[in-house]
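go over this:
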Amino acid sequence: MNRRHFAIAMAVTPLMAKFVHAATEVVQGKDYLELPTPMPVAVAGKIEVIEFFGYWCPHCNELEPKLEPWVKALPASVNFRRIPVAWQDGHIPYQKLFYALEAMGASIDIHQRVFKAVHEQHLPLGSEAALATFATAIGVDRVKLAEAMKGFSVSSKLGIANQQAKSYQIEGVPTLVVNGRYATSPEMAKGDVQALRVVDALIQRTKLQR
């Protein structure tokens, strides 16, 4: 190794050590669980992070203000997506709302407004009247939103979402899954910020495993 290569190696080594440390500091069974059967990712070549969530869930509502800026800061090599979960019939309208807004091209910022409507304004978005009020407040055509929620595309995505929640063995929300292999949650990691740190570490671990 010549002097130039040695200098480069010395500069890179601390950075790699940092990544290795970040990737190994989380503990299986304590900070995260490894899924018994790895699941395929939606976009080949990218590391995937999925949030299984529900607009109706108070814990998802608490996580959202930390999650949104974290998602915006993710590198292009990471594909983030949300999958809405329903434990009972009353949760299904919220699944439909998510996919209808997605179909209408709603921005990522809309999620905090939905959570606010549900948890602060206490709008029961399963009712047509409350949905119309909400749509008007966010500047969305209420008729188009209602039609989208009843459409075939949204219905098909609901079926896929329910099957994915079953395949991933999701028992609580919010749950964060990294690359179809690792799962964590604020409950398991002992906090919202801690859960995102665990996900960061698992993303780095996945990069090193490639």
